[in-house]
Amino acid sequence: MSDLAFSAIVNGRKISRTAKPSQRLLDFIRDDLNLTGNKEGCGAGECGTCSVFVDGVLMKSCLLPVAKVQGARIDTIESLAKTGELSVLQKAFHKAGASQCGYCIPGMVMAATAALRINPFADREEIKERLGGNICRCTGYQKIFDAVELARDVQNGHLPVTMLDGIDAEQGDYIGKNVSRIDAPSKVSGRLKYAGDMLMPDMLHVHVLRSPHAHAKILSIDTSAAEAMEGVEGVITCADVPGEDGFGVFVHDQPVMARDKVRYVGEAVAAVAAEDPVLARQAAAAIKVVYEPLPALFNAEDALKPGAPVIHDYAPDNVTKHIPIRVGDVEKGFAESDLVIEEHYDTQAIEHAYLEPEAGLAYVDHDGVVVVISPSQNITHHRHMLAKIIAKPIAKVRFIMSPVGGGFGGKEDMIYQGMLALLAMKTGRPVRLVFTREESIASTAKRHPSKTTLRMGFMRDGRIRAVAFKMISDGGAYGLSTEGVMRKAAILGAGPYVIPNLQMDTIGVYTNNTPSGAFRSFGALQTQFATETHLDIACERLGLDPFEIRRINMMRDGATTHTKQKLKSVSIGRVLDAAEKASGWEKGVSGQRYGRGDLGGEGLRPAVALGARFAADTKQEAAE
Amino acid sequence: MLTCDEYLTPATLADAFAAMAAHRGRYRIVAGATDTLPWAREGRAGDVHIPVLIDVAKIPELNERHVDERRVRLGAATAIQRFLDDAALARALPALPRCAVWFADDQIRAQATIGGNIVNASPAADVNPCLIAHEAVVEIVSASGKRTLPLHDFLLGPGKTALKEGELLTAIECDALPGYGGSFEKVGHRRSLVISLACLAFSVRLDADGRVIEDARIGLAGVCPVPVRLRSVEGFLRGKKLSEELLEEAADMPLDLVQSRTRQEYRRDILRGFMMRGLITAAKRAGADPAVLSSELEAAYV
Lengths: 624, 302
Ligand SMILES: Cc1cc2nc3c(=O)[nH]c(=O)nc-3n(C[C@H](O)[C@H](O)[C@H](O)COP(=O)(O)OP(=O)(O)OC[C@H]3O[C@@H](n4cnc5c(N)ncnc54)[C@H](O)[C@@H]3O)c2cc1C
What we know:
The complex is a heterodimer.
Chain A: E1 4-10, E2 13-19, H1 25-32, E3 51-54, E4 57-60, E5 73-75, H2 88-95, H3 105-118, H4 124-130, H5 142-155, H6 184-188, E6 204-210, E7 216-222, H7 224-228, E8 232-236, E9 261-262, E10 268-274, H8 277-285, E11 288-293, H9 300-304, E12 319-327, H10 330-336, E13 339-347, E14 359-364, E15 370-374, H11 379-389, E16 397-401, H12 417-427, E17 431-434, H13 437-443, E18 446-447, E19 450-458, E20 464-476, H14 482-492, E21 501-510, E22 516-517, H15 524-542, H16 546-553, H17 572-582, H18 615-623
Parallel strand pairs in A: 1-5, 6-17, 15-16, 18-22, 20-21
Antiparallel strand pairs in A: 1-2, 3-4, 3-5, 6-10, 7-9, 7-11, 8-10, 12-21, 13-19, 14-15, 14-17, 19-20
Chain B: E1 2-3, E2 6-8, H1 13-22, E3 27-30, H2 36-39, E4 48-49, E5 52-55, E6 65-67, E7 71-75, H3 82-85, H4 87-92, H5 96-101, H6 106-109, H7 114-120, H8 127-133, E8 137-142, E9 145-150, H9 151-154, E10 155-157, E11 160-161, E12 167-175, E13 181-187, E14 198-206, E15 213-221, E16 228-229, H10 231-237, H11 244-252, H12 264-285, H13 295-301
Flavin-adenine dinucleotide sits between chains B (28-36, 38, 56, 76, 103-104, 108, 112-113, 115-117, 119-120, 125-126, 163, 168-169, 193-194) and A (44-46).
């Protein structure tokens, strides 16, 4: 290996170092210079968290071999607020509330800075266009565009600088009150340290070996070659777990690393701690695992069939959790109905796609306390589970929550913290694990895919008489939050409506897919998609306005739900009124007034308008 | 993850060939590296170790740019962004600036090269259909000599080219088409950073009155293994009077070319729509008589 003698001007300072030939500019600035403001969100040029200036041109530092920028002038996010004073754009991001989790923000601020340098008068369309290479998962972008427009107007003197001042404290405590984010300055400047930005003296780097099989018996694991490599300080498998090996939000059915068999592609099988991340990868690749593939299940219906392969011994029917709720007599209710409608609704797995891939550090402190730092959304529960797993009293386990670069439910599961703790204990050194984007997608929870059969009986006037609701959800290989999601689905799925006869079944099922888990709305989305769509269909059949059918059936103050909760106040009536007004709703029966343009209805545009027109094209025109 | 033992940045073509000879069988060429780095990741090639990477992006011969009224010569390491900031190039290659705004994003365009786009030989590469329509010829050089090949003979299939070990793509030469109106139509899942599901490049020249199509050049990609030039459509249009009916007829002609494994029907729909929109826009930019292309037609497609 021949190292490079590398020099460049970084944030105005000349630096000369040796760099490794395979290093990317991103690795160099983050690992060698400890400039961690710019992040790695995808490593493939797709997300823009790593955007920096190279000789004044914005570029993605994850796509740049460091040798390419030999002698160049490089400016990272840290260059914008060098003296501690935020730039106009950074202040505008703070003012507009444009930073939420903050992980995309350093790159976003860089892209916005580039946009206003190229065109100080860029309009919103051009701003969108120039920020096209940077992804944000939290904001929906509007506040980011607001911030760039605010900065533009202040820079151009169209708005006073005082517009960048903090927002005035509003009186009172209520939902929707404007508050200034106290963490915004640290986010817009890149100073906030996420777990993957943190360093500890003497720290080792972790890499996880993952299963290539959806369902297979593990016949043997041979770690000797990996252990023999110089610089490899620790290798762990399930054999290194001293306590009760299981975690999960409800059932503790998932081992820290696969035990006896693997149940999904991407499941952790072994982990390595080594002096550098490349070595850790190479060592993991040197672990030999012999598998015997087993028949695998890829959808929930197959898993429920008699004689289907069994994924967990404790659940011979592959059912993770079934929540049945019965109110009244549905068959009688259907018999009394004037109209019965039955439909099927499917939803798919969805990735949370937070910009921060999972990362964490662990160490054993001077008192023998095992400390895990990670963006966990559930540290107290993790702490209790980990104490059992590593067989230590709870006082000897500590969890520290690092800033969460987006979670949306996806960081509730203790999917890697156990491995970190075990490696810190085994090596006696601090360890750090940073997931790649691919690893994050392959190994962590998704939103539950669902298949719902919904039957509703209506009276001619629109009143619901009976509902039979059955949702089968693919919970994937492990329980994680499935039980809770099924409960929430059963509680919320029938909607805020008075239903005299109800039969509700939500069934979470084990398969060999990536585990499903918590995801914003926790089961309500899948079920309410079915219920609300069903009501719209009923409107068409009954000749009712969609708002009307909901008003006819809605619960009112004092109602008791099908799960026996007494509701002191019910707001759906007010919500409907507000939505009707705000949307400029034209009263009438749905589905009968307009054709769906994108589905080739009458008098519509041919399939061509999808690649929307963009400002750059008009500008091109003007330039000619 | 892509790892290497050595990363070389030869300053001259001669140095590059010397490095290639010294590391025969152990090297790989990179230019912008925007295809190479994402390729060496999980789910694609995985971890890849290449002993020697030879970066040709800074070699002067590969950064040449020469434009006259008839021909354009571009070094293989020309970055895509140049189509947007070099007015002479934009004039000679009217479809390419419009292709470039659709290409990746501002940041990647500054780094990605035309040579990399060509040699990577993705069926969805956006530059190739433009260059094919300009009768592009690629210049291939090795330590022992030089050869040229029409671009459509150089591209053999997805990821396959006629490039041999020890050879570099040094330049592209193609027709300059000043006075043509250009357009580029592309669709993918989103506006930026997107692989084409289908893309089409158009260059159209009209007579002085803006009523007769004197020449049309159309390149298609994304729906077939290699980009194709729609010669039969071009022949059909050449010399004909511009009219709505003519364009509608032309738009139906290439639909059978869709060979993609997925979303065939959608791609055919979009291809027809793009044929209309691309031809209308290119004709307008070539100075079409406003009376010929009705505003209703434009409203429907553009
Ligand atoms: C996020 C993202 C978005 C993208 N969007 C688009 C898009 O919208 N449209 C599109 O078409 N592409 C897109 N791409 C793909 C890529 O950027 C282009 O194909 C680009 O033109 C490749 O050029 P490069 O110089 O970066 O290639 P490199 O990675 O340097 O090289 C690609 C291949 O060509 C070979 N090669 C390069 N130059 C030479 C030469 N002179 N002689 C011999 N061999 C050579 C290399 O050995 C390698 O095999 C995108 C890529 C990313 C990461």
